[in-house]
Amino acid sequence: MKNALLEKIRSRDARVAVFGLGYVGLPLALRFAEAGFETAGFDIDEDKVRALNAGKSYIERISGGEIQRARDAGFTAASDFSECARAHALIICVPTPLGAHREPDLRYVTATMDAIAPHLRAGSVVALESTTYPGTTEEELLPRIEARGFTAGEDVFLVYSPEREDPGNRDFPLRKIPKLCAGHTANCLEVGAALYRAAVDRVVPVSSTRAAEMTKLVENIHRAVNIGLVNELRQVCDAMGLDIFEIIDAASTKPFGYTPYYPGPGLGGHCLPIDPFYLAWKAREYGVHSKFIELAGEVNAGMPAWFAAKAADALNRAGKAVRGAAVLVLGVAYKKNVGDMRESPALKIMQILREQGANISYADPHVPKIEKLRGYDFNMAAEKLSAELLAQSDLVILCADHARFDYAMIKRHSALLLDTRGAMREQDEKNPPIRAVRGKSAAPTAR
User: Fold this and answer.
1) Phi, psi torsion values for 446, nearest 5 degrees
2) Which residues have a catalytic role annotated?
């Protein structure tokens, strides 16, 4: 069966099904369609399915033209998972959030596997791309495959290949990002590697699914820990009256032994705020308390509250209370120049201040509306950024330093400005309210 499946992949006769059509799954489905495979995308969100089948995109960086070209190549979207029965390759790209107590929540992964298991057939490959803790593929997917009477590595091939998407990074589109791939058996790896080689330029084999799962966590925890360190350093420098961004830039002149990381209002996206807690949870199963990793996660998770307190202090110094204050948030995406709001620290800052009685509004050229978000009940539309809007606001908080913002106008018309990203550092430093409200940490455009 392995050789027959490999031949279908090489000849582009294999049919591909991608489950979860978000920021990871949709680009992957489009890439397989572009590579010549008959591709179907599956999602429980009927609005997404209807949009895609109408040739429309709901992700800013993906144009309607790209969707239509995929449609012309045979791409379809569906919410009925039974339609995956024709697929030879089934790729799971669903969220892996945290539970109420920061424990891994694999409900989307297991529910998806449960939904597709009755439609599995011999001669197919199942790949998991969702970021998760080491052991998930073997502990959660393998038993569900075996329960259907299949043997992994003989008639169904089980693979873990973590996503490495970086929304907004035009230098590294999906095709150019090296793809890690691991299989439950050697046969599984051979099939999985062949599948992904058909869609990306380079596949990197990894010895086991557990090793690949751990590699993905290491990549993201490396960043999360270093950002946690510099976020804590920002708080220390703020208390000492030092400019953390000046210090980072100065340290960066050392040609060896130092890599710059820049602070911000907290971590966003689906990976960095979550992955440290996934590994810490799994490590406890082995009797290991990963204090360092957990501490970084705590520091980063606490940054929105720190900035909310800075906002309250800024209003207080201006003789205003948080309750009733008009607070304008600039940028609700989790990073610059994208419309991705997953785990955005801006939303957490907004929620804290709203609970304290502030009247919250926002402007973001990449996010026209805020709706349907886990853990938040916002239902609001973006305001058009203008001098009048800025002047009417008691406090302006810059959370995402989008290139499309007019920073000179923001500086000129904001009575109070809290710059969480450092985007104003290169602006004229002669405006006292900006310098005062930023506290002692003026700052550059955050990297």
Assistant:
1) -70, 140
2) 271
